[in-house]
């Protein structure tokens, strides 16, 4: 599978809630990093919890992909995350507000699987969109669940 095909499967898994696909496209040593989980990448067990909390917080979550680029051993894609925060998470209580948060993911590819995901987005834009007055309320408790 090419880097772009893996990126497309990854996005599809999120949008269709087909998380079993992660087992088909992730390497055993997968790690994930974004501005909310903190400076240290989280391994698969913590990533699973993080995904569950994000879906619980945003049941209608979907990613609109702007463009995907294939770098051979990596894929890069620009996205906009859409959703209404109607559920609580360990990071913050439900706010009832919607987000349209732009970001970029970089997927590291080896042996036809995704081995690392680095997501980049503006953490302050996220907290502002949700009306969270204290950005510390989205500090890394999610990463601590590993």
Secondary structure layout:
Layout (H helix, E strand, L loop, with lengths): L2 H14 L3 H6 E8 L8 E2 H14 L4 E9 L3 E11 L13 E13 L2 E9 L1 H7 L17
Parallel strand pairs: 1-6
Antiparallel strand pairs: 1-2, 3-4, 4-5, 5-6
In summary, what is this structure?
The chain has 146 residues and is α+β, with helices and mostly antiparallel strands.
What's the main sheet like? 6 strands, mixed
User: Order of strands across the widest beta sheet?
Assistant: 2-1-6-5-4-3
Q: The CATH topology is what?
A: Nuclear Transport Factor 2, Chain: A
**What structural class do the secondary elements suggest?**
alpha+beta
How widely separated are the two ends?
A: 29 Å
Low-confidence stretches: 137-146
Output mean pLDDT: 90
Silhouette: globular
What's the number of domains?
Answer: 1
H-E order:
HHEEHEEEEH
Q: What is the C-alpha radius of gyration, as a whole number of Å?
A: 15 Å
CATH C-level = Alpha Beta
Number of strands: 6
Supply the CATH architecture. Roll
Strand content: 35-45%
Residue share in helix: 25-40%
Tally of individual helices: 4
Description:
The protein has 146 residues and is α+β, with helices and mostly antiparallel strands. The protein has one domain (3-145): Roll (Nuclear Transport Factor 2, Chain: A), CATH 3.10.450.50. Helix content is 28%, strand content 36%. The protein contains four helices and six strands, in the order ααββαββββα. The protein has helices at 3-16, 20-25, 44-57, 123-129, and strands at 26-33, 42-43, 62-70, 74-84, 98-110, 113-121. A six-stranded mixed beta sheet has the order 2-1-6-5-4-3.
